[in-house]
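Researcher: We're teaching a course module on how sequence relates to structure. For the next exercise, students receive a sequence and then see the predicted structure as tokens, so they can try to spot secondary structure elements on their own. Here is the exercise chain.
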Amino acid sequence: MPRSSIAVLTFLIGVTAWVCLPPGTGLVLGQDVAAPLATDGEVIEGPVVATITAAELEELRASVEAAALAGHNAWMLTCSALVLFMTAPGLAMFYGGLVRKKNVLSVMMQCIFLMGLMSMIWAIYGYSLAFGGSGGWIGNTEFLFMNNVQRYWDDATQAPVTPMSNGIPLLTHMLFQGMFFIITPALICGAFAERMKFSSMVVFSILWGTFVYCPLCHWVWDGGPLAYGEAGILGGALDFAGGTVVHISSGISALVAAMIIGPRMGYSTEPHQPHNLTYTAMGAAMLWVGWFGFNAGSELLSDDLTSSAFAVTHFSAAAGAVAWALTELLLNGKPTVLGASSGAVSGLVCITPAAGFVQPMPSILMGATAGIVCYFACSSLKRRLRYDDALDAFGVHGVGGTLGAVMTGIFATRACWDIGGGQPLGLVEGNARTIVGQVAAVLVTYVFAAVVSYILLKGIDAVMGLRVRAEVEQRGLDIAEHGEEGYTLV
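Model: And here is the predicted structure for the students to work with:
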């Protein structure tokens, strides 16, 4: 029984004794109390025994477990909503403010449409591919069309039955993980913003979710070859909330997409300034709030570790925002709203794989490091490699996710989560092997996501084309692709 349930059970037994027994009477389970007891000033000699029948104890235990289930389930449903909130309005506003005004609706449409599209795919077959079975390279057909996930009628007991997973309804687990499936391809959209066909984006997202995300998710979180433990490659990876599965995979895929589709028209000769940094700042704040569900919810219940994951998420974001802004101040003379916003997101990305494994003080160092490193990745590295990652999906998510995965191997401690059964966890506890497993997982994710993304993008380009025509790009995707404008003067 979980510690929280035992505590509640003990409390309820105590309350029962206080209500049902005379003042001063002790409640004893399984033994007598031989010492004299006083009741209303009268001393009672001899043993006093208070008993609870097995049926009553079982009923009490069932009540406690039901209360614990309700609490965990409510928390996980809240976290699911928070992660969905990250895609829209969070990411939609963050990305929408960074593009030119003629393309703001196209970026928001990508985020909102993917909320619907990826939800359908996840319900039909995505969840089954990611979490069906255990181990191996891909899931099975166990959960196709939400079979064995949704409630069903049991003829034997003549009652509805809820399939469970680790103390919460399996449907809740499916919903929570589905929100990750939604936001990950939406992150990639930042790389080819302002120039990719909407239809091509849709096809790519379907195929990428099927052939990149689902296998990676299964490898890391469902006992596959990257799962932490002896069965994993070089010990597997510690990935609490998606450093490899979400951020590195989307980041490297974004880089491949940016290189294949090519730069925007006039990228090296004309300014491509964000049209509304107010949107971007508000979007970053929404992402910050939503990330609490993303990270703290990844334990899949609510207990003392949840508080730790929540705290390190906040402190890493805070340090990232400050570090990026201070870097701008030192190098350019002025800190910017865009810099503070991007720094916060960088810190959030970096702490994602580590949220359940590191203490608050190391999380500040991780966030600050991410703010500085991602700043240079989005400026110097992009200029040197000459690619047009329009909204810096690789610079923030690819680089930040990689940094977070490696630093998890350094700062992970069993004091947060004793996942190794008492064995030292990270380098700070003398275990260098964890870093080896982290680096191996990063490299596997890089190669797998890059190769599959390249094949998918090249195939789509050959069949239907990736890029809009030059005149469409010049006019803007809002009008050309969706027949609407983000701003109308009246």
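Model: If you want an answer key for the exercise: The chain has two domains: 3-52, 78-482. The mean pLDDT is 91.
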